[in-house]
Amino acid sequence: MQSVYSVLLVSWISCVQTLRIEQCNDEALGMENGLISDSQITSSSTFDKQSVGPQNARLHTEFASGAWCPKSQINSKSYEYLQINLNQTHLITAVETQGRYGNGTGREFASEYMIDYMRTGSQWIRYRNRTGHVMMSGNFDTTTPVIREFDPPIIAQKIRIIPTSKATRTVCLRAEVHGCKHQGVIYYSTVQDGSRQENLDFRDLIFEDSQMFTESGIKRGLGLLTDGYVAQSSPYEEDSKNASWIGWSKANTDGSINILFEFEEIHNFTDVVLATFGNRIDQIDVIFSQDGKAYPLYSTISSSERQTANHTSRRYDFRVPLHNRIGKKVRITIKFSTDWMFLTEVHFTSTTNKPSPVIKTATNPDSPAIQQFLVVCGIVFLTIFSCVAYCITLCIRRRQNNNEKKCEQILKKDLIITHMGNKPSCHVFPSNIKNTGKGPFEMANDIYYARSQKSTLLSVSSKSTSSYRNLPPTWSDFNFPPPPEMNEEQVYSQHVSTESSSKSGSFKSNKGVTEVKKYPSSSLMLGHAIGEGKFTLIRECVVFGGSKVAHKSIKDVDCPHGRRALNDEIAMLMKCGKHPNIAELLAVDEHCNLILEFVELGSINLFLQASPSPFEVDFLILICKDICSAMTYLEQIGVVHGHLTPNNVLLGSDLHAKICSPRGPSHHAQLRYSAPECIVHNEFTHKSDIWSCAATIWEMSYQCQTRPYESLTNEQIVDNACALLEGKSDTELLEFPPIFNKSCMILLEQCFASNRQDRPVFEKLWKSF
Length: 769
Ligand SMILES: *[C@@H]1O[C@H](CO)[C@@H](O)[C@H](O)[C@H]1NC(C)=O
Ligand SMILES: *[C@@H]1O[C@H](CO)[C@@H](O)[C@H](O)[C@H]1NC(C)=O
Ligand SMILES: *[C@@H]1O[C@H](CO)[C@@H](O)[C@H](O)[C@H]1NC(C)=O
Ligand SMILES: *[C@@H]1O[C@H](CO)[C@@H](O)[C@H](O)[C@H]1NC(C)=O
Ligand SMILES: *[C@@H]1O[C@H](CO)[C@@H](O)[C@H](O)[C@H]1NC(C)=O
Ligand SMILES: *[C@@H]1O[C@H](CO)[C@@H](O)[C@H](O)[C@H]1NC(C)=O
What we know:
Layout: E1 11-13, E2 27-28, E3 41-43, H1 49-52, E4 82-98, E5 112-118, E6 125-126, E7 136-137, E8 146-164, E9 174-181, E10 185-190, E11 196-197, E12 200-201, E13 212-213, E14 219-220, E15 246-249, H2 250-253, E16 256-277, E17 281-289, E18 301-303, E19 315-336, E20 340-352, H3 369-382, H4 406-410, E21 415-420, E22 423-430, E23 458-459, H5 488-495, E24 517-519, E25 524-532, E26 536-543, E27 548-554, H6 560-576, E28 585-589, E29 594-597, H7 604-610, H8 617-637, E30 649-651, E31 657-659, H9 676-681, H10 686-701, H11 714-725, H12 742-750, H13 762-768
Parallel strand pairs: 24-28
Antiparallel strand pairs: 1-19, 2-9, 3-4, 4-8, 4-9, 5-6, 5-7, 5-8, 10-16, 11-12, 13-14, 15-20, 16-19, 16-20, 17-18, 17-19, 21-22, 21-23, 25-26, 26-27, 27-29, 28-29, 30-31
The structure holds 2-acetamido-2-deoxy-beta-D-glucopyranose (6 copies).
One 2-acetamido-2-deoxy-beta-D-glucopyranose (NAG) is lined by residues 129-131, 133, 135-137, 151.
C-alpha cells in the first residue's frame, strides 16, 4: 500500500463566490443557424413530414409551413415531442420557443411544455426546476420568441420539448436550445442522504429522478452539488431554504460521508474545490478509478485542514490539489467531527486528453428527401414496443396522523399490472391517487409519463386512472421487476399484528411461523448506516441493556412501496423462523421497522471485493454450503426467497454465511440474477431461486469482481431470457470456472436449464459441494 499522503494542503479562500463554475456563455446551440443538422431533430409524430416536419422547427426561420406540428391535437394526456439530439453532452441553460407564423397563416403555438432529457447511460428524465415545477410556460402568440432558463441547468445529450395543454388544441412550435459543451461530472451518488433537522430539510432536494442506481443500489444523478449555484447565505437562514445546501449530521453519518463522482471520459485532474459552510473538515480522501471498477490505493490523495482556520459561521471553499491524477470516477470521503457538515457545490478542475472536437460547419437546412427519410427512421425507431417491461414506482406522499394505524393504512394496494400484446410485460399505474379535485395538471409535480397517440397496442387495464398516462416503454425505461401481486394486507394482518392465529390458514406452510417480539423504539439506540436497499436503510443499533443488532427501516416513511417491502420481509422472516444460515428477525418496533440479527462482516460481495488476494476455494465452498443449506430449508418450508444475490449473503465473524432479505417474489428481483421465467412471465418459484443461487455462486467464484452478464445491457438480458424460453440456440449462459468438483459443476450448470423442471432441488446441490 503505497498511498501518497499529500499533507495539510488547504487553501482557505476568504472572499465569497470564488468557485469557478463552468464557464458557459449560453450560446444558441444551432437550431437557428443550422449547426444542428436535420438528422438531429426528430419528433414523436408529425402532421405532415414535408410541411410541418421536425426539420422545420428552427427558431426564427420560415421553412415550408413554418414549424413542427405533431400529428394529433394536444391535450393533457398526450405525449408528443420535438427531440433534439446534440450528439455530445451539453450544459443546457435555456430553451427558447416560438409558435407557427407561416407568413401570417399560422395560429398555433405551445403555451405550456415540459422537458425530458437524457445523457450517457441514463434513461429519459423529466425536468423539474429548483422549486419542483415541471411545467414551463411557453408562448402566447405565433411570433414572439419566449426564452425559459433552466435553474438548475440540464446536463444532457438529448432533449425533448413536450407541448401540453389543458384543453385539446393544435400546437406547433419552433425552438432553439442554449448552452455549451459539458465535460464535467455526469453523475454523482452519496451513500448517506443528507439529514433533516426540525423544519429544515438538508437533503439533496433537487436531485434528479434519474431512476439510475449504482451497483450497490445508490441513486445516481445530478443535484445540488453540481447545479452551478453556490449558496452564500447560511444553511439555517430562512431564505436559503430554496434548495441550496446539503447537510449531513454527525449522528446520522458517524462523521464520514462518501461521494462518488462519475465523468464521461478519463480526466486529468488539477484540483477539486468543496464549497462548505462553517465546519471543520478533519480529512478528505480522494481516490481515482480509470476503469470505473478498481480504485488503486496508490492513487489516494489525502488532505486535512489546519486547526486554526476561523470560519465557524461562514461559507468557505476547501481546495484539494489533485496532482494531475487520472480517472473517470473519483470517490471522495469526507471525515468531520463537528455536528454538521454542509456542502453547496463541488467543482473539479480538469482536462481531458481528447481535444474538443471541431464543430461541423453549418449544413444547409433545406431538407432533401434523404434527411426526411432519416427523420422517419428516427420516429419508427422510437415507437418500437415489444416485450418490454416498464415500471413506474411512485412514492405517494401521504400523512397519517394516527400513528398506530399507519402501517396498515399505507398498505393499500396501489399498483396494477397490464400486459401488452401477446408478450407479457409489466406496466405499473398508481390506482389510488387521491383525487385532489384540482384537475390532472396538478399532478405535474409528480413524475408521470404521457401516453403517445400510438398507444393503441397497449391493452391498459381498466383500473388505471385517467390522470396517469403511460408512454410506450422504450428499452431505456426498462425497470425490473414487476410490482407485488399478492395481497399484502393479508400478509400483514397475519404476521405483524399480534393476533396472528386468526387468519393464518391461508398460507400453505406455517411450520416456521413464530411470534415476533415488539421493542419500543425508545429502547433502541441507532448507530451509523451499514447498508442500503432501494427503499430501505440498515443501521447498526444497540438495544438498551442488550446486544448489537441491525435496524432496518424505510428511507422515506411516506413511501408505500418501501413500507410494503418491509412488511413483506417481516412476514417472510416470521415464516422462516430460526436457521443458522438465515439472518434472524429478532423483533419489530412500533413503526414496523425490523430488528435483525447483526452479522458482523456484512455482505459477501463487499468482503470478497475488498480481500486483497484471491480467496481459497475451500472458503468459497463453505459459503456455498451455507447458502444452499439455508435455501434447502426455505424450499422445505415453502418460502420463495425471490431475490438472492451476493448482496443478500452476509458473512459472520466466524466466516459462516447467512442469507438475508427474503422478500418473496414481489419486490425488486434483480434482473441479472433472475431466471428467464421470472423476467418474462413474472413467475417466481424455488426453481427460479436456484437459478439466482447459481448466479450468486458464479459471481462469488469470480470474487464478485464482475456482475453476471456484464457485457449485456438490460434489454439484451431480457432478449436473452426470451430466447432461452423459446428454446433458441443463440443464447448466453454463465459459465463456471473449473474450481468445483465434477458432479457439482454438472448440477450448477443444470441450475441454468431453461426448463425449470430440469433444475435440481437445493438439497442435491447442497450435498454436492
Ligand atoms: C413563407 O415565405 C417564404 C419566403 O417567401 C416561403 O419560402 C415559404 O414557403 C412561405 N411559407 C408559407 C407557409 O407560405
Ligand atoms: C450528429 O450526429 C449525426 C448522426 O451521426 C450527424 O449526422 C451530425 O452531423 C452530427 N452533428 C454534429 C454537430 O456533430
Ligand atoms: C420553476 O417553474 C415555475 C413554473 O414554470 C416558475 O414559476 C418558477 O419561478 C421556477 N423556479 C425557478 C427557481 O426557476
Ligand atoms: C435561491 O436560489 C437562487 C438560485 O437559483 C438564488 O439566486 C437565490 O438567491 C436563492 N435565494 C432566494 C432567497 O431566492
Ligand atoms: C474569529 O473571527 C471572529 C469574528 O470574525 C473573531 O471575533 C474571533 O476572535 C476569531 N477567532 C479567532 C480564534 O481568531
Ligand atoms: C496531466 O496533465 C499534466 C499537465 O498538463 C501533464 O503534465 C501530465 O502529463 C498529464 N498526465 C497524463 C497522464 O496525461
